[in-house]
Every structure is written in C-alpha cells, then in structure tokens.
Amino acid sequence: MLLPKRKVNWKLMLENLLKYEQKQKKTIPVALNDKVDEFINWYFENMVRGHYTDIREYHQPIEMRNFIEKMAVWYELRYPDYEINRLMPGSGQENIEIDDVMFNSNRYINEQLDEDSDVRVLDWDEFYNTKTFINSLPSDERCLFQKPRYRNLVYLEPNRMSAHLHLTFNGIVEKSEGLGAYTQFKIKDKELQGMHVKTVVKILQENGIVLSSNNELEATVNNAENWIYQKEEMLNCVMYRIIERGGSRIGPRRAFLFAKEFGRNIDIPMMYGVDYSDPGLRRFMNEYIKAGGSKDLICYVGYFSRASKNEKVDIVSMQELIQSIHNDCVTKYTPEETELHQRMVNSLANQIDKDGIKKEEVKQLRLQRKLEKSRKNSV
How many helices (H) and strands (E) would you count in the chain? Predict the structure, then answer.
C-alpha cells in the first residue's frame, strides 16, 4: 500500500533532540513558522501538484497559508488580548471588556434596540462561536472542515472492469462484487459487507493479495487519509500562528484555549509559553496541569527573546517549574492551590477524626463486653 507522504515527525525529532540536549539544559527550539512552512510544502506535493492548472498550482499554497492566518485572526478577534489576560492573567488588566464593546457600547445596537434588550447579556465568545465562523466562510474555505467523502464505486483494477466495491460516502462497503473470484475465494464478497474500506485493504494484505500499483482501492484510502491529515495539520498550523502572533504571554494562553477547543496538543502552547518575567506563569501552569498536562513536559525558556531562530535557549521540565515558580513575591501558591491544599488538609483531618472516633467506639464496645462478661461470671 502506498502511504501518503508525511511531513517530518516533529514530535519524535523534538523528543530525541531534547533528551540529548537536556544535559546541557540548552537546545535550539523548533521554530513554529518552520512547522507551518513544512505543512504548506506537504500540501503542495500531496494535494495540489498535478490536480490544478499551473496558475492554480501557484495560488493554492498561498491561499492555504492565507486561510491559516485568517483563522488565527478570527481567534484573536474572538479572544482579544485583554480577555485572554482576564481569563489567565499575565500582565496588567485593561479596563475594557469585549462583551461591553460588542453589545452595550455598539452604536448600531443602541440605535436599533432598547436598553432592556436580551442582546445586552450575550457573551461575545459564544456569539462568535466556531460553528458561526465556519458557516460564514465561502464554500472553498468551508469545505476544508468537511470529512472526506469516499467514491461510491471503486475498482481493484481500473483497466479491468471486474472486481469492485460499492461504498457509502463514509467508506463503508455496501456491496462487494467480483472480489471472491479475484482473490480465488480467499475472501468472500458477503464477508466484506459493512466493513470500512481501510479494513478491506488490511484483509487483502493479510491474505497475500497483491494489488496493482495504480489500483483504485488503495488510492481511495490514501486520498481520504490525506484529506484528514490536511485538516488536522491545518488546525495545528493555526495554533502555531496564534502562538507566534500573540507573543510570549498572550500567544501561548490563547493557543491553549484553541488547543482545548479543537482537540490539539496542549503541550505545544505550554512548551513555548515559559517566560520567567511572566507574573502569571504559575497560574498558566496550573491551567495546563488541570487540563491533563504532563509534569514531565520539557519547555523552552525565552523562545520569544531569541535574536535568531538558530539561537539556543534554556530548557526546563514542568516538574522543575512547579518546584521553583512562585505565584508572586509573597506567596508561592496561587489562591486556587492554597484552597485546594486546605481542602485536602481538612479532608485528611476529617478522615483522621473519623478513624479516631471509630477506634474509640470499638474500644468502648470491647470494654462493655468485658464488663458484661465479668458480671455474668460473678453471678
């Protein structure tokens, strides 16, 4: 089976590099913009080249890059810097709220609606939600979010109109015709009904059925896999651009929200978000850990303060950060952590009190039994 070309495995490369460099506590960080460039190159080679005219081949990668930027800007409009700072403080708070700007101080709304209108209590981030954003896009951009649609008729040998599968748009086999004879009845047509086409390819391989290099079956699977990869890596690139565009504090925090909403890797925003001058770093770390983050994560220190992308930066583990980073100049722990610690202490104290009461009750019961036994013996 011809697998779709993939970009460099950044995660594996990064893990190996960090393991090697951790002894020196310095490394050259993987530039986020390089990751975007890598995806655009993959997109051109796998989704564009040979499928468009020369003019369109030139413009398609540009349009993909522009869309990635558009989506990053949408998220900035949905969560302006001051709202990110309100959700996860990292600097001084501005006296402005996006809900008030969009609904209460909006001249158009004030001219059209009265002061008691329900629009006054709307939340901007919910109003400008993901579904609304996608639905507002032109069709050529909106389709980037669609699931892959499989062809309804797939031949194993394109030049021999014999063995073929009837598929649903989700890739499920509705009917198989001629595969029994094609495989010398190692596989029966009825056995394939209801299977996903990827499973059919696997079964053919397991039974030693060699398909031609230009067979439609594997081509259909590869096309779908490429489409899925395109969407997933496109969203990753949006996250990378959100980090880069927002800078050392706002960028990682905004990207963290994006990662949670779109199912991206929350390690990435945290990895690029360590700035020792950030007064809200410990709170950001807490949000990452609460979302399921790892204490073993290795982070870059000062990614945004480099003079060039090839400059080495310090690296530090989340465990080291948890031990060393304070909430402020007075307290190590955030109010949330302090409250959690107190609740834990109270819980343990209550448990100890319960255990002590139970032991005392058992002791009194034993004493009572001994007294009763003593009375009976004396009689």
Answer: 17, 6
